[in-house]
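Researcher: For the record, we're logging two predictions in this thread. I'll number them. Prediction 1 follows.
Model: Prediction 1, sequence and structure:
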Amino acid sequence: MALHKLQVDDFYDDSYKLIAIHCRVEDYRLAYLLNKHLELKLERKDADIDFKYLESSYSIFEWDNETEYVMWNLISNVCKKEEDSLHSTGTLFNDTEKVLKTFHLIPEFKKVDYFIKISDEIQNVDENRILNKLKAIPQIITSYTVDPLKIRSKDHLIF
């Protein structure tokens, strides 16, 4: 009897483009700037991307351009959370100190602040034109494309 194997990776389609953005402004401000300069209509989703096992959440803005069959997502890569620090018991003072912990959606790109994920079904989005427009925005330090196939934690970008 013949043994047939079915690979799950055969059905996974990487039909999206990923752009990394280095920018120190707040997420809502960046969404406004992208809407203005790229003529998008990004809106904040009701629910953030939430990872319970890390207890971190990442803001996400989305626009579904139905006329051009393109889904735009602006995703935060950084989550900063204040937690109680660990200290030994039985000390003279019972002061609890707070520690600021930083989590990343894509750990391979710890210096990236935001990602733009462009899911286009008919491959009509020009990445170079988008990058040129992004580099013209004064608040953005730099932006560049990222190959989704080279990211180990690309499952975090499925939502």
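Researcher: Logged. Prediction 2.
Model: Prediction 2, sequence and structure:
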Amino acid sequence: MMLFLMDVWDSVRGFMATGGDVLWLVAVVLFLMWVLMLERFWYLNWIAPKQHLAIIASWEAREETTSWYAHRIREAWVSQAKQDMNARMLMIKTLVALCPMIGLLGTVTGMITVFDVMAVQGTSNARMMAAGISQATMPTMAGMVAALSGVFFSTRLDAKMRISLERLKDSLPHH
């Protein structure tokens, strides 16, 4: 098992080395994005249902649910639940949008490396230029893959939040 982990770590280090320093920035943003998405997933599946049950119980415990005042209370509770569910979604969406931009930063820095090699060594040193081209393409690819995974799962989280909020609204009848 330890040998397997060492092989995996060597593979990751090799991949990160071919992509340059910008690839580490993509990895940090990706890690942060996934931590936030997992936290939202955990919240939606374990915390929000309990909070919604408490809101429903409070609504059902009210003697009067038909007045204008009662409707405003209902709207406030639903609004608070929506705000709690959307707590870190803006940050997640920002990180998703940032991933391709960081990948493009890697493209620019890799191409600067290529041009630097061309200026110093001339165009005849293909091996030196290949390192710069690798530094240009790897972060771009990694940024796009990170963004795609983030788009997919953040869209799923949004849909799950909308469904959960609609169920809460349906559970709070107002006549």
